[in-house]
């Protein structure tokens, strides 16, 4: 069936201009490109249009290439997926057995190193080497949960998989993937970018909105691979897509079958995550996909295997919803081969602000990883203000964002982000800490960072390392929220939690 290119182009019409970043699109059918186009600019300083040959950082969409590298080694017998990771990485702390398989399926309980970086007062724009990241993970003295008992997305797991590839093969992840996967498939523009100073011909630079209609460069200085850092083009990705139907890599169909088999928890529950791939359904059709978000880049590779159709959207602007656009393109391409789409409640509700009078208060989850403040004018999360709109009785949505809120009962909310991460939040009783006792300096040995808490001009403030003072949200007598986590007070110190790194202890100095 032919692609209705006019309808597809209309989705990207706001980006099809010479003064803004945009994206590259590829519609792949049966392993061949049916339609590919670039929209917007790859470089705003030296105007360069985006084309299907433009090179993008695909963020976490890279994880499937890391997983494939590990699976190749496992199929050769050079490692077992059930091996304890300490066999390959003896410098990690002994927190009990953790298997390679648990890293692959995000069930290891190892704290996410990106969350740890932010809690430690660093930014994700800073240069960090793989040795620094490995050292930060090795300093941890606790896990988020018992390995195998839960699923929690952790970039640490995939970074460590890259280190295991190095330990077993003697080559860096970049070298191994190039030799064993990318070159054999003819992916000449694809590689793990492990040197931020390296020149990349045809690169689309990443951008973030500046708030006044303009854009700023957003290309983190980063050398870390495994969890991300693959640079590629929509044209190159067709070669990878073809492997899911006619695999030429060692193991052939069995290799792809294992790549796309979801993992399980120790209790037997099947996950929706395989080898760097999310396994799901959309409008009645099976999907194999993975998105990516890093700096000013957003990516989505969305495959409908039963229809042999894949949509790739690679964007160089941080305000892009690459996943949402990929699903919209799929709706055009596959049409009535998909089940009817549900009513688009979010569009219908844009002009219907929610009545929040009965919901005003501060909420947190049982594990205290998130603080949400509902105010009469909207909702505040980690210091950022958002508008809530009502989509149905008892169901709300962050305006313009894929975040749904459901009123579950008196003083209870359910929050769902992108259909994946979910929280049950309960309203906290009003209260405030004793600032005369709380103000002071605190230190975490696991992160090698010092925090300061103080009242600055009668407003509660926090300072993380050398970062500037930032507001503290008072969520109750013993709970405080800040830009990257939640502080739970205790005698002699406090504990910091985020969704992907929990139980970081700080002691009063």
Total beta strands: 31
> Would you tell me the overall average pLDDT?
93
In helices, the fraction of residues equals 10-25%
Instruction: Give the class from helix and strand content and strand pairing.
Output: alpha+beta
Instruction: Report the portion of residues in β strands.
Output: 25-35%
Report the principal-axis shape.
Answer: globular
Distance N to C terminus:
68 Å
Low-confidence sequence ranges:
345-349
Provide a count of the helices: 12
Radius of gyration: 23 Å
Report on the biggest sheet: 9 strands, antiparallel
Placed side by side, the strands forming the largest sheet appear as: 17-16-15-14-22-21-20-19-18
Write the layout of secondary structure elements.
Elements: H1 5-11, E1 23-29, E2 32-39, E3 41-43, E4 48-49, E5 56-57, H2 63-75, H3 100-104, H4 113-119, H5 130-138, H6 155-169, H7 173-182, E6 191-192, E7 207-209, E8 215-217, E9 230-232, H8 237-242, H9 252-259, E10 278-282, E11 285-294, E12 297-304, E13 309-315, H10 322-334, H11 345-348, E14 361-365, E15 371-375, E16 378-381, E17 384-386, E18 388-392, E19 395-398, E20 403-409, E21 412-417, E22 421-427, H12 435-438, E23 440-444, E24 449-456, E25 459-464, E26 470-471, E27 473-474, E28 479-482, E29 485-490, E30 493-498, E31 501-508
Antiparallel strand pairs: 1-2, 1-13, 3-4, 5-9, 6-9, 7-8, 10-11, 11-12, 12-13, 14-15, 14-22, 15-16, 16-17, 18-19, 19-20, 20-21, 21-22, 23-24, 23-31, 24-25, 25-26, 27-28, 28-29, 29-30, 30-31
Helix pairs in contact: 2-6, 2-7
């Amino acid at each position: 069936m032919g692609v209705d290119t006019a309808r597809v182009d209309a989705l990207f019409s706001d980006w099809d201009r010479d003064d803004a970043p945009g994206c590259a699109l590829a519609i792949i059918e049966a392993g061949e490109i049916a339609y590919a186009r670039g929209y917007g600019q790859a470089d705003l300083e030296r105007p360069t249009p985006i084309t299907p040959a433009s090179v993008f950082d695909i963020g976490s969409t890279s994880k499937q290439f890391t997983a494939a590298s590990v699976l190749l080694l496992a199929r050769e017998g050079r490692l077992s997926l059930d091996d304890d990771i300490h066999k390959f990485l003896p410098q990690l702390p002994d927190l009990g057995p953790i298997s390679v398989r648990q890293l692959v399926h995000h069930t290891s309980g190892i704290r996410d190193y990106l969350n740890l970086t932010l809690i430690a007062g660093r930014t994700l724009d800073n240069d960090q080497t793989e040795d620094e990241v490995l050292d930060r993970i090795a300093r941890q003295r606790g896990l988020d949960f018992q390995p195998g008992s839960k699923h929690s997305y952790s970039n640490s797991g995939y970074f460590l998989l890259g280190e295991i590839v190095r330990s077993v093969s003697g080559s860096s992840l970049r070298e191994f993937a190039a030799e064993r996967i990318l070159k054999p498939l003819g992916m000449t523009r694809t590689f793990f970018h492990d040197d931020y100073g390296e020149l990349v011909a045809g690169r689309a630079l990443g951008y973030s909105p500046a708030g006044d209609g303009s854009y700023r460069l957003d290309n983190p200085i980063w050398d870390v691979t495994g969890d991300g850092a693959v640079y590629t083009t929509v044209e190159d990705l067709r070669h990878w897509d073809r492997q899911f139907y006619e695999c030429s890599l060692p193991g052939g169909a069995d290799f792809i079958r294992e790549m796309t088999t979801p993992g399980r928890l120790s209790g037997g529950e099947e996950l929706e995550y395989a080898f760097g791939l999310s396994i799901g359904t959309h409008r009645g059709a099976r999907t194999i996909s993975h998105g990516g978000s890093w700096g000013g880049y957003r990516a989505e590779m969305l495959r409908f295997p039963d229809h042999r159709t894949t949509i790739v959207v690679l964007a160089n602007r941080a305000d892009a919803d690459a996943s949402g656009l990929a699903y919209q393109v799929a709706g055009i391409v596959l049409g009535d081969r998909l089940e009817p789409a549900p009513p688009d409640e979010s569009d219908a509700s844009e002009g219907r602000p929610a009545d929040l009078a009965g919901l005003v208060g501060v909420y947190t989850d049982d594990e205290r990883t998130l603080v949400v403040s509902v105010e009469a004018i909207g909702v505040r999360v980690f210091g950022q203000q958002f508008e809530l709109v009502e989509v149905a009785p008892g169901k709300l949505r962050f305006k313009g964002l894929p975040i749904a809120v459901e009123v579950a009962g008196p003083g209870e909310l359910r929050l769902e982000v992108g259909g994946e991460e979910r929280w049950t939040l309960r309203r906290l009783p009003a209260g405030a800490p004793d600032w005369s006792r709380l103000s002071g300096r605190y230190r975490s040995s696991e992160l090698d960072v010092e925090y300061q808490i103080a009242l600055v001009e009668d407003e509660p403030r926090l300072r993380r390392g050398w970062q500037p003072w930032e507001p503290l949200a008072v969520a109750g007598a013993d709970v405080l929220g800040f830009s990257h986590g939640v502080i739970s007070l205790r005698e002699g110190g406090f504990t910091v939690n985020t969704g992907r790194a929990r139980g970081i202890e700080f002691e009063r100095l």
